[in-house]
Amino acid sequence: MRHLTLFLSLLFIFSVNPARLAAVPPAPSGDSVVIAKKKVVLVRTGEIAKNFPERKRAIVSYPVVTGGLSPAVLRKVRALLQVKNIFDTSLEEYRSDSWLEEFDYEVNYNRNYILDITFTQTGTAAYPDTHTKHLAINLKTGNLIKARDVFKPASLKTLAGMVDRKLQDEIRKTQAENSNDMSQDERESMKEMYSNLRFGVEHLDEFSINDKGITFLYDAGFPHVVQALEPVGEYFFSYAELGSHIKQEGLLGRFIQ
């Protein structure tokens, strides 16, 4: 009888619905966090619903972070990732305005004490528009990762020059691809539009991290009517290329050892 009871107990354990097991979030490894997606449907009423019936609803998806961080660090990370701190707009402000259609995020990297995440908001006013906000967070401290945290101070000017060369190459390629279809006045306008675009040391704090290297980010801020000519603004460098500029003792030191 005891053998039968034991058999039935084991049968119950191994017959647990695998889908339920898969739904359990993985435990943090100690150098990462667990991120669950929270989805909120904003329902608009009153004048907005009356004047813009197609914008009665907006979808907001944001990360809820847990994991093996100290309480102080976890509080700082959660504060950085609050909806109102991404695009300086709260859920209530999104609800009371007709612009937003969707707010979402993508986790680019989540290990080695680095959380790299990109937020996107899409909406419509006079025309459809999309905004992005990137954050690279130090999971040891809960602070945003700055260039001076991971690169040697003496290398910052050199790094900015390396990125600027890629930016200028992209600009020259874009001009060559589009100039034949433009009038002389349009070509002069395009040249003027690009003339002040430079990647300097002040832009180095915007970068995305993964196992292969660093992508420096640059927003030229072109108006909507000429956004087709705006530089992509993403310039990748492998750790082999950046090795001599990376602080051995910093978060990126492990990638050049």
Task: Describe what you observe in this structure.
The chain is α+β, with helices and mostly antiparallel strands. The chain has two domains: 120 residues, Heat Shock Protein 90, CATH 3.30.565; 109 residues, no CATH class. It has ten helices and eight strands. The N terminus is likely disordered.
What's the short version?
The protein is of the alpha+beta class and 257 residues long. The chain has helices at 2-14, 18-23, 46-51, 71-80, 83-86, 91-95, 147-150, 156-178, 184-195, 239-242, and strands at 34-43, 57-66, 100-111, 114-124, 128-138, 207-209, 213-217, 234-238. It has a five-stranded mixed sheet with strand order 1-2-3-4-5. It has a three-stranded antiparallel sheet with strand order 6-7-8.
Question: Notable features of this structure?
Answer:
disordered N terminus; 10 helices; 2 domains; alpha+beta; five-stranded mixed sheet; 257 residues; 26% strand; three-stranded antiparallel sheet; 8 strands; Heat Shock Protein 90
Can you lay out the helices and strands and say which pair or pack?
Elements: H1 2-14, H2 18-23, E1 34-43, H3 46-51, E2 57-66, H4 71-80, H5 83-86, H6 91-95, E3 100-111, E4 114-124, E5 128-138, H7 147-150, H8 156-178, H9 184-195, E6 207-209, E7 213-217, E8 234-238, H10 239-242
Parallel strand pairs: 2-3
Antiparallel strand pairs: 1-2, 3-4, 4-5, 6-7, 7-8
Helix and strand pattern: HHEHEHHHEEEHHHEEEH
Could you tell me the radius of gyration in angstroms? 24 Å
Per CATH, which architecture of the largest domain?
2-Layer Sandwich
**Shape call:** flat
CATH class of the largest domain: Alpha Beta
How is the biggest beta sheet arranged? 5 strands, mixed
CATH fold category name of the largest domain = Heat Shock Protein 90
Secondary-structure-derived class: alpha+beta
Oligomer: single chain
Strand order of the largest sheet: 1-2-3-4-5
Q: Gap between N and C termini, in Å? A: 60 Å
Q: Helical stretch count?
A: 10
Q: How many structural domains?
A: 2
Mean pLDDT over the residues: 89
Strand content: 25-35%
Low-pLDDT ranges: 1-28
- What percent of the residues sit in helical stretches (DSSP H or I)? 25-40%
Count all strands and give the number: 8
